[in-house]
Amino acid sequence: MYYYRYENTEVSCCYKYLMFSYNIIFWLAGVAFIAAGFWAWSEKGILLDLTQVTQLHGFDPVWLVLLVGGVTFILGFAGCVGALRENICLLKFFSGMIGFIFFLELLAAVLAVVFQSQVRAWLNEFFLANIKAYRDDIDLQNLIDSLQRMNNCCGAEEPNDWDLNAYFSCNDTNRSREKCGVPFSCCLSDPADSVVNTQCGYDVRNKPKKEWSNDIYTKGCIAALEDWLPGNLYTVAIVFIVISLLQMVGIYLAKTLVTDIEKARFSY
């Protein structure tokens, strides 16, 4: 009877090391994200003067990198140590946090569908706020440029949104060379150009509006996103399903390991 209970209540090495292998990848990914975030801040001199963090007017993409890295690092650490040390508290913390994140993802998806107009208005306000801060942060600038080039768009609703930026404003008091222009990422791309012309958007908005389409994209990025989504629903759905399956596998491994540990501890 003693050997029978031992054989059926032993902690499964298979689940234990599967759980460890599953989490070591996320732990290393978290370390990489955190390192990349601090490297980006060091390049901008923020680590030498942390007060600069509070002086940023727009969205700093480094915050998102550090947030994702921090959460991934903590979960990976909890999963790895919990599996190796057979620590029930860490394993329950891991599965609970994964479940909570999965719930937030579902909630965000439902709210985005139900409140489409409000989400669109929020995205528009968010984009306009970051247009104002375009020159304040190099990472934000690169993010907006990438978004506009990838989606062949300019501004939130239209190119005139760039009038909100002090450098591109058509205001009479503006003495910038970029006055009444748009960033180079708004310009029509030419595959034959081997060098990016960063001055291609200068003075574009001084021309009659009907001529803008000869030089720049005239569709706003919010509209471009709305056009992109219906044609890529399968891609979005596949990504969501893959992420959900990975989360479910993590929860399953953690729950199974907790059950094995509890059986082994309380069987004697």
UniProtKB/TrEMBL annotation:
Domain of life of the source: Eukaryota
Protein name: Tetraspanin
Keywords, sorted A to Z: Cell membrane, Disulfide bond, Glycoprotein, Membrane, Transmembrane, Transmembrane helix
Major localisation: membrane
Cysteine-cysteine disulfides: C153-C186, C154-C170
Annotated GO CC locations: plasma membrane
Compartments (UniProt record): Cell membrane; Membrane
Coiled coil: none
Alphabetical list of CDD domains matching this protein: TM4SF9_like_LEL (cd03159)
Record field: transmembrane: 20-42, 62-84, 96-115, 233-254
Membrane topology (UniProt): Multi-pass membrane protein
Pfam families: Tetraspanin
Family to which this protein belongs: Belongs to the tetraspanin (TM4SF) family.
